[in-house]
Design brief:
The chain is an alpha/beta fold. It has one domain: Response regulator (Rossmann fold). It is 57% helix and 12% strand. Helix 1 runs antiparallel to helix 2, helix 1 crosses helix 3 and helix 4 runs parallel beside helix 5.
Length: 212
């Protein structure tokens, strides 16, 4: 094999390797997104059961295992540690929050958690309903799932940003996707924060308290 043929073969090998790595990253992203959404639904169901007064050791065990599974996923995709931020002390009347997620259990679970923290919480389960609710509620913050079926959370975020009435509303993405391109796309769409499911309460509260 002459030098030109060797160079051509090396280029083809590099291209094939790059394609294979990209395919693996995409598969891993889909895998972790599905798992994170499932964990968020489980955590939401636990929150609802606890709010209904069912306090059992089994619920504590489930919650601990959800946390462990989240840490495994974070390590799998090398998620950087969230920056430590000082958070305001809990009080009543902390603001209005709109949760938009087509995962009903996850949305209701967040509603329960944030209501306990003193927020006024509204929920919507698809993009168009979320837009309508935002125009009525005029929330201080919107927790917006990025995978909403026919209309993506990115599209909803851009439409929210175009509403003069919602100019001061803080947009927080809730997602199972954490590739660098996902975070870049979030910022470009108008999101102030990009939080991974199942969301850690302390991280969520810190993001909400940073809204002003």
């Amino acid at each position: 094999m002459d030098p030109e043929q060797l160079a051509a073969a090396l280029r083809r090998a590099e291209q094939e390797l790059a394609t294979e790595r990209a395919r693996h990253r995409e598969l891993l992203a889909r895998f972790t997104d599905e798992l994170r959404n499932s964990l968020a639904a489980i955590q939401g169901s636990v929150n609802l059961l606890e709010a209904a007064g069912w306090n059992a050791p089994e619920l504590d065990a489930i919650e601990r295992n959800v946390g462990k599974a989240r840490k495994v996923l974070d390590a799998l995709v090398e998620v950087p540690a969230a920056p430590r931020r000082r958070r305001a002390r809990a009080s009543t009347g902390r603001g209005r929050v709109l949760v938009v997620d087509d995962n009903i259990e996850a949305a209701r679970g967040l509603e329960v958690l944030l209501t306990k923290q003193g927020y006024e919480v509204a929920t919507a389960f698809d993009g168009p309903s979320g837009l309508d609710a935002a125009r009525v509620v005029v929330p201080d913050a919107v927790l917006l799932d990025l995978a909403l079926g026919q209309v993506s959370g990115y599209d909803i975020a851009r439409q929210l940003r175009a509403e003069p009435l919602l100019a001061k509303t803080r947009l927080i993405a809730l997602t199972g996707f954490d590739q660098h391109t996902d975070r870049e796309r979030s910022r470009a769409s108008g999101f102030a924060e990009h939080l991974l499911k199942p969301v850690v309460l302390e991280e969520l509260l810190a993001a909400l308290d940073a809204r002003r």
